[in-house]
Input
Amino acid sequence: MNVTVRGRSRHYRTVSFDAANNAVRLIEQRLLPHRFQIVATPDYRATAQAISDMVVRGAPAIAATAAYGLAQGLRAFPGGSAAAFARHAERVYTTLKAARPTAVDPVNAMDWMRRELAAVAGVAEQQRVALLLAERFADEDVEHCEEIGRRGAKLIREGMRVLTHCNAGWLACVDIGTATAPLYAAQAQGKKFHVFCDETRPRSQGATLTAWELAQQKISHAIIADNAAGHLMQRGEIDLVIVGSDRVLGRTGAVANKIGTYTKAVLAHRHGIPFYVAIPLSTIDWRLRAGAEIPIEERAASEVLGAWGVTVQGRRTYVRVGNPTSAARNPAFDVTPPELVTGIITPAGIFRPKELWANRHELGG
Ligand code: MRU
Output
């Protein structure tokens, strides 16, 4: 996506790889929208840490980061026997896998790489092919998002008011985004519409990242407090909801996404508003059988008890909001049951949640 910083416009991917320095290059998302900066992680442990600390976030973006991180780790093998390389590869994989537990995309990406690498002989060749595979995963993510845009644009009609939650935009993917892809495609078709961005406490990805993306793209939008959507729906001011996901169960159509998604789905259902989930194929989990089995990440209490922002002088700072001696619970995701979801927008078409399993071959299952 093109980013304009200090009057200059340039195309960026959220995640890329610097082969000469064996480093993963990331947009430092914690600084947005106040500062645009690229950072590089020098080794696979730093890459995993960047995922945990949410320098990079969003299921497809952390999948591409993990894929590059796996290649980075394999390329840094100090040398030794094939067995030592296999042990090293396992360490790299488990470190990256543990960085964030809810999104299935990083696991799907790395498992696919490992299956492909199993057929490659020799350490040097595996190191070379690992990077090619990571690049291929990243490119395919972009293609999937483009296709989601083509498929989903028809849902956006002239004058619509669309609600989205968290950030499932290009910052959450390698480029383009999932929930935002139909918006960008509809804009390219000349349609006019308005987007409400849920603020998305506690980390405010809607207020900071989605709003910044839409502003960069000159799409009409407004940030709303998380509690405002029900009121707007009741007054007939929201026509459509589109969100992304960290894991959609192929067997049932249950959708894990940022905490608060379930609440919005219940509200949309109550008001007869279509509720869509946009995903690349890497977001589908073909293994788990029930939403209750999805691991839900619990993050630090400090995220709920306070907030990050910048002072009027532009200095990044954390401020306390809640009573500092109180405990806090911070589940980062929730699970929306399939009956609340109108459709899943995928690169292979728009399906009802219960239709995923019957179409598993087409969907890479
Ligand atoms: O905690 P985050 O910011 O990684 O959560 C991101 C989301 O919940 C997104 O909606 C999801 O990963 C889909 S991104 C295309």
